[in-house]
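Researcher: Here's the sequence for the chain we discussed earlier.
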Amino acid sequence: MASASQESAGGSEVLRGRKQSSSVWNYFTYDSTARRAVCNAAECKFAQSGRITSNLRTHLSRKHLDQYNALLEAEKKADSAAGKKTSTAKRVSKWSNDAESQASATNALAAFIACTPTSVNAVQHRMFSTFCARLRSDYVVPGRTKITDTMDELYAVMKAKVGSALQNGGLITICADIWTKKGMTESFLGVTAHFLSPEWEHKAVTLAVRSLRRPHTASRIKAMVYQIIEEWKIPRDRFFIIVTDNGANMTAGFKEVSLDLIDEEDSEAVAEANQECEALATTAVLNASMDEEALSESVEQGLATSEPSTPADPDAVIREEMQDYDAQEADHDATFDEIQRIPCFNHLLQCVVRSFDTVKECRDIIKKAKKLVSKFNHSNTATAALVDRSGKKLLGDVETRWNSTYIMLKRLCELKDDVDHVCEQNGWDSFLPQEWSTIDALRKFLEPFDTYTSISSGQDYTTNDMYVAILLELDKHCRASFQSRKTMVSVAAHVVVAALDQRFARFLDPNNTKHNPFYLAGCFLNPFLWRLLTNEQVDSAVKFVKATYGKYFPSEISPGPSTDEQQPSPKRARFANLSDKLGDLRTHMVAERSRSTLENEIGRYKAASYPEFTEQSDAVRFWKSSHGKGFEKLSKIAAAVLGGVATSTSTEQLFSVSGFQTVGRRNRLGGHRLEVETLLNKNLSFYENSV
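Model: Thanks. This is the structure I predict for it:
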C-alpha cells in the first residue's frame, strides 16, 4: 500500500527519511518536504506533523478499524517470529464506531461531561484512555469533536422531550434572571419553566442560559425572553406568570425602560409610596406601646438618629439595591405586558430581614461579629486551632447569600466556647458574656426567616399556597418579640413588622391601590389553609380565580347541557335584522352559564369541610384526587397557580451549575456551548433513559 501511494504522489518528492521500523508505516506515507505523515486510505485527508506513531495508531483505531486489526495481526505475527510475547491488550478487537454498545457508552460519556465541570479535552488525556481500558478494553475512546457532536445529539433529544412536556402540561410559570460569568467576560439570561404534568407531577425545566449583550435594558431582556419562548414553540397564552428578582443585575435593566410604560406621575407615586413606607416603619416603632424607658430611648437612637450609610459599609450596597428596586418596581410590572409579573418572594423577604440593620445596636454587634469571623478566616493558625477543637470553621456573612447573617451568627453560637478559647490563645478580644447573649437572641429572632426561606425555595412541591401562612407566621413571631428582654431585639421586631407591611401589603391587602391577589389565590386553593383568609381576602382570591379562568380557558365555555333529541327547526326566521345582536346575547348567556358553573364549584368548595393542616397536607394531592369529581373547572386554576413558583431559586441554582461549568481553565466556555452543557445538566431526567 505504501508503494502505491508513493507512485500516486504526482511526481512530488516523497521520502521515507530514516528507516521506518514500525508496521504502522504500511498505512501512512511520510512527506519529508512537508514534514508530515499522510494517511494512505482513500478519501481520508488526515495528516500529522512529525513521525509520532502512537497518534497514527490512534487514528487507525478510530477511523479505519479494518486496517487497525490488520496492523495488530501483522504485529502479532512479527512478535511471534521474533519470539516475543504479545500483550493481551494488543490482541483485543475494538468495537466498531457504529456498534450499539460503543454508541451507548459514548452517549453516557458525553452526558457525564455535560453534567460535570469536566472539559471535553479530558478524552484526549492518556490516563483517561487507560482508565477506560481498565473498565472495558474494547471501548474506543472518542475524540473531543465526537464528544461535542454527541452532546449536540443528546441536546436535540432532550429539547424534543422537554418541548413535548411543555406542550402537554398545564399553564406555565417562567423565572428569569441575569448572571455574569466570573471575570465579567460575559453575561447570561437564565430562564426556567415550572408547571404540572397531566398526572399532577411538578415539572421544572431549564429553557435557556443565553448570552446577553450589554446594555441589559428592559426592552432587550423582554425581547430575549419572548424569543426563547418562541424557540420552544409554546404560545404566549400558555404562560401564566413570570418571576424576576430585585437584584442589581435585573433592576439595572429596568432603569432604561421606555417612558410609555410609566409616566412621570407614576414615578412620583412610587417615590411618595416609598417615603410613606419609610415613615410608617419609623412611626410604628416610635409610637409602639412599650413600658421600658430604655426601649424608647433605643428606638430614638436607633431609628430617628441612625447614622447614614457610607460606601465603605457593605450593607449600604444592599440597602441601595432595595431602594433602587422600589423605584423601578412599576417598570418591572409593566414590561412583560402579556404575562403577569410576580417579584421573587424570597428576595422581598430578604429585604425585610435586612431592615433591622437600621437599628444601630443590631448593626454594631453584627459588624463586630463580621470582624471577628474575618479575623479567624484570615488566620491559618486560628482556623486550624478552631477546626482541631470543633471540626468546624466560622462562616462569613456574604452579601449575596440569603440569610447569610443568620448563618454567621448560628455558627458563632455553636462554637462559642471554642471561639473564646482560640481568642484567648491568640491574645484577641472575644465577645463579652452579654454580647454573646445578644448574638444568641438575634439568632433566635432570625431563625424563622431562614426556615421559611428554605421552605419557600422548594422546587419539588407546592409553595405558592404557603406564602400567606408564612407571612402571618412571621408577623406573629415578630410581635411576640415585642416583649423581648433584649431591647435591641424588641426594636428590631418593630422595624421588621413595619417592613413586612411595607413589602407585602399589596399582596395581602385587597384595598391596596396596587393590590395583586396572587398570594391570596394560592392560599385559597389550599383546602387546609384557605380559612386563614379574611372574607375580603377570599373575595379578592375568588375574583382572581374567575378572571384567570375566563382568560386562559375561554374555549371551554359550555353551551349548556346537550341532548340527543333533535330540536325542530323554526318554520321561518324571526327578527332577521336583529340576528347579530341576538347572537351576541346568546354568547353572553353562554358565558354567564359557565361562570355560574364555576361559581357553583367555588361555593361547594367553600362549604365543604376538610381535615386540619398538618405537615403531610398536600394541596396538589387534594386536587389530583378530586380532579374530574365535581371540580373540573376550579381544578384547572388550581393546577396553574399551584404548579408554579414565585421565587427565583431555580435560576439561582441554574447559575450555580453554569458557574461550575466555567471554573478554572474552562472560563472560556460560553455562548451556545455553555447553554448546551447547562441544559443537558439541568434537564437530565428528560433524556436520561435515552443514554
